[in-house]
Every structure is written in structure tokens, then in C-alpha cells.
């Protein structure tokens, strides 16, 4: 019926149009991550801050949930059932009209440490984090699975530019023309930085999948935490993919910019899903481009091929 179509049409019109990508100091960005730039850059860090950095889709949500459980599941159990994860772990650079900015959310936190999510490439991290010697955890995921996961995310996230079709998307991934720029520069820039900075722990998504408990131990020794056996068990269990996926406070369903009818936020949670997306030709071109861009680094992802 006409009125129904009309209603749907009206609802669609009410959504803000998707943002466009532009070059921002050499990195592709959108207004949602640059509009608040002055406040982001002058952000006042604390020595006890924990900054969780990744290129999009590397497992940031997973590790943020692990950290939140480690620090708060015993002291504030209600938090787990009533506050969505994206509010517990604010996203530093986000500023979407109609929602509080990440910076404002972080300043209003009154339980410490603050766990801070960011996708900023290393050259953009606010100076104060270095001055305060805040702890930094970087999560990296192999390029092919990152590209696939990012594609599905951009399809369902109304605050991201239109992804277009998979083959053009993959080309833009290779060209670094996606939000937060080049995957290669991002993982490589933070990898180099960790050589000269003792407060960076560099984790891999593939390692977390292989042995979550082992990586949890690495995380705890970096943070100088000694959780009891019960807490370790709780963290490992609650942060399993299927448990997170069915947890409304951790699966992104509380995030208003996501359209779950298109794709879930916790989508597959596997290593190697790229094999279901890449054609043989795309794989060959990707490998050639990858080897050219990564030939001067000793950063190796053991599960790419
Ligand atoms: P897929 O799209 O491949 O499923 P980020 O949080 O940085 O946006 O990363 C999202 C990716 O991490 C998604 O990958 C998501 O499913 C995966 N992920 C989230 N929680 C996970 C978990 N507990 N175990 C394994 N993968 C997880």
C-alpha cells in the first residue's frame, strides 16, 4: 500500500546521509572522526589510562570486553548487565551529531582505569598519552580477514561511507582509501613504535583465537594484574564469540548506527573467512601488492596464506 511505502520512505529520509571520505593529513577519514579534532588532540590522558588501539575490525571489541571484565566484573557486576560496552569503553575520536562525543564520554568517566578505544594511526595519537606513559595495547589482524570484516561492517554501519561492491572495496583497501587509511601503514606504524616504547603490547587476533588463555596471561602480565583462577575462567568464558554474540550489552545491538538486518556486528569471529570472498585473481593481486608494501618490515602474520 502507498502509505506504507511512504512511511518507510520517510523513515529512510530521516537517516543522515552516509559521510564521504576525504584526505586528512595523508589519511582517509570522515567528519565523524575529525570534527572534534582540537579536543581529541588536546585530550588529557592519565598514567592509569589503558588505550586499546587497532585498525578497524581487528578484534577491538573482543579485547575491550576482556579488559572490562578483568577490571570491573568483580567490583561493578551491574555494569555488565546494564551498560553497553561502547559506553564502558568510549571511542576517543568519535563525534556523531546527536550522540555524546568520545572525548566527552571519557571525561565523564568516574571509575578507573579508563579503557579507551581508538583507531588512530600512530602519528595521530594525542601527545598526552605519551607524556603520561599510559598503557597501550595494539591489536592486529591479518590483512585479508580485516578487509572482509571491514566490508561487511561498512555495509551495516550507517555512519560509514557506502562500501560499494566487494571487488571495488578490496581495491580501496589496497589503496588505503578506507576510513582510518591504509591497513599496511597502520599495523606497520604501531609495530615500529613499539620498538622504542616499553608501554606498548602488540597482540594478534589470530593468537587470541588460537589460545585465549595464553593471550590473557600476556595481557595480565603487561598490565601487572594477577586475577584469581575464577576471574580468569569467567573472562575466558564470557568473552567467547558465541557468548558475546548473545550478550546484548556486548554484541553491538545497542548501537543505533548499526543495521543488523544487513549484517551482524559479531559476524563470524573466525580466521580465514577471506577464502570465502577472494577470487583466485583477487588473491594473486592482493599478495603481490602486500609483498611490495610489507617487504621492509619484520611484522609477520602467520595465517595470511
Ligand atoms: P568478523 O567480521 O570476521 O566476524 P572490531 O571489534 O575491531 O570491530 O573487530 C570485529 C571483528 O572481531 C569481527 O570479525 C567480530 O566478529 C570479531 N570478534 C568480536 N568478538 C569476538 C570474539 N569474542 N571472538 C572472536 N572474534 C570476535
List keywords for this structure.
305 residues; alpha/beta; two-stranded antiparallel sheet; 15 helices; 45% helix; 9% strand; globular; disordered N terminus; binds adenosine-3'-5'-diphosphate
Task: Write structural notes for this entry.
- The chain has 305 residues and is α/β, with parallel strands linked by helices.
- It has 15 helices and six strands.
- It has a four-stranded parallel β-sheet, sandwiched between helices.
- Residues 1-13 have low confidence and may be disordered.
- It binds adenosine-3'-5'-diphosphate (A3P).
- Adenosine-3'-5'-diphosphate (A3P) binds next to helix 3, helix 8 and helix 14.
